[in-house]
């Protein structure tokens, strides 16, 4: 019951506001105007002809197209700069990796030379030992 009274009070308030507003200078028409209103004065809103409206729409459309083209150009430049930044980061990474691999290759070459010298010396010493030992064994058996 309380909810219904609240709704009626709200409806009454709205209705009274609408009635009071109708006494002001707000014209209410049941049908749209069929004739052109008289020329406006300084206090009234200016009316535009269809040609003026079409011209204004064309100008706004052209300005919008120019703004869209400018924004697209800016977006393309931004995308190109982003790609350039990504590529420069990639180039830097590849350079760093190449330098690291070059240093590792130098170290590997040094280690390979060292191992080759050690293996050569081991073979030389082993060969000499076998040769001298074999000579002594063969020479001692006679």
Keywords:
142 residues, mainly alpha, elongated
Q: What percent of residues adopt helix (DSSP H or I)?
A: over 70%
Q: Which regions contain 5 or more consecutive residues with pLDDT less than 50?
A: none
* Tally of DSSP helical segments: 2
Tell me the total number of β-strands.
0
Beta fraction: under 5%
Q: How do the SSEs run, as a string of H and E?
A: HH
* Mean pLDDT level: 82
Largest sheet: none
| End-to-end gap | 139 Å
From the alpha-carbon coordinates, what is the Rg to the nearest angstrom?
Answer: 49 Å
> Pairing-aware structural class of the strands and helices?
mainly alpha
Shape verdict: elongated
Question: What's a quick, concise take on this entry?
Answer:
By secondary structure, the protein is mainly α. Helix content is 79%, strand content 0%.
Write up what this structure looks like:
It is built from 2 helices and no strands. It is an all-alpha fold. It is elongated, with a radius of gyration of 49 Å. It starts with a helix and ends with a helix.
How do the strands and helices of this protein lay out in sequence?
Layout: H1 2-22, H2 50-140
């Amino acid at each position: 019951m309380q909810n219904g009274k609240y709704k009626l009070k709200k409806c009454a308030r709205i209705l009274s506001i609408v009635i009071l507003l109708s006494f002001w200078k707000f014209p209410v028409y049941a049908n749209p105007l069929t004739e052109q209103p008289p020329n406006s004065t300084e206090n009234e809103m200016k009316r535009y002809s269809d040609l003026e409206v079409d011209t204004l729409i064309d100008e706004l459309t052209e300005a919008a197209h120019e703004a869209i083209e400018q924004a697209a150009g800016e977006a393309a430049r931004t995308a190109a700069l982003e790609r350039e930044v990504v590529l420069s980061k990639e180039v830097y990474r590849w350079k760093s990796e190449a330098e690291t691999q070059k240093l590792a290759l130098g170290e590997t070459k040094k280690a390979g030379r060292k191992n080759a010298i050690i293996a050569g010396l081991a073979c030389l010493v082993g060969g000499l030992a076998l040769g001298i030992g074999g000579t002594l064994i063969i020479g001692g058996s006679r």
